[in-house]
Structure formats: C-alpha cells, structure tokens
Amino acid sequence: MDRTWVLYLCGAHSFASRRFMPDSGVCSSVRLFVWRTALVRVGAPTRAITQILNLRLIHVFAGIGILCRVYPDELAGTPLGRAVLMLMVTFWIARTIEQVVFLRIDHPLVHALTASFVLGAGLFAWPLLF
C-alpha cells in the first residue's frame, strides 16, 4: 500500500480518536464511564484538569489528522516528519500499555478502545518501515 494512503488512514484514525473523547460531544465512553456524574464527585480542580486534558487531546488528534491529510509526503519523507510518526507510534503503544495496566474493566467497549490503540500504533509505524 502506498505510504500516502496509509497516512490518510492515520489521519482518519486520529479524527476518529478525537471524536470519542468525552468532551467532543460524540462519545460512547460517556455512557460507559459515566463522566458527568463521576466528575461531580471529585473536586473542582480535578474536574477542571480532566476536562482541560481531554480538550487538549482533542486538539492534538485534530492537528495530527490534519498533518496526515495535508502533508503525507513530508511526514513519510523528512526526518522531522518521521520523528512525528515515531512520536505517534510511541504514544499509541504507551496508551495501550496504560489501558491494560490502569483500566481493568472487562467490557466490549474497553476492548474495542484497546484494539483501536494497537491499530493506531500499527498505522503510524507502517510508513516508517518503508
């Protein structure tokens, strides 16, 4: 498969990841993790930090999605682009490990999220192999 198309898939994966963050408005994890009621029970600083972190992740995923769509050749063919791809591979591998270590919930949605993290690591690694 052409690296450009793989990077388009990386961009689609990033946009999909952005859509499933709790503060994105389109989130099935809200139902599973009961964000609205769970965050009410914690203090205001913890609630604010959690929301800020989620919003920043949405921003990062959107930015990576745009980079993959607009600059696929640069991502695959320049040292800086390859470093960005490696950063994303590392992000998704670490996120998968954190999911297994910290989120020990036996639920199909959790398993699907974990699979999407593994998929992200594989997609972003693919252009680095060729």
List keywords for this structure.
0% strand, mainly alpha, 130 residues, 79% helix, 7 helices
Summed up, what is this model?
By secondary structure, the chain is mostly helical.
Shape by Cα distribution: elongated
SS elements, strand count: 0
How widely separated are the two ends? 10 Å
SSE class: mainly alpha
Query: Which strand-content bin applies to the residues?
Result: under 5%
SSE layout and pairings?
Layout: H1 3-19, H2 29-33, H3 35-40, H4 44-70, H5 72-77, H6 79-102, H7 108-125
What can you see in these coordinates?
With 130 residues, the chain is mostly helical. α1 runs antiparallel to α4 (44-70), α1 packs antiparallel against α7 (108-125) and α6 runs antiparallel to α7 (108-125). The chain contains seven helices and no strands.
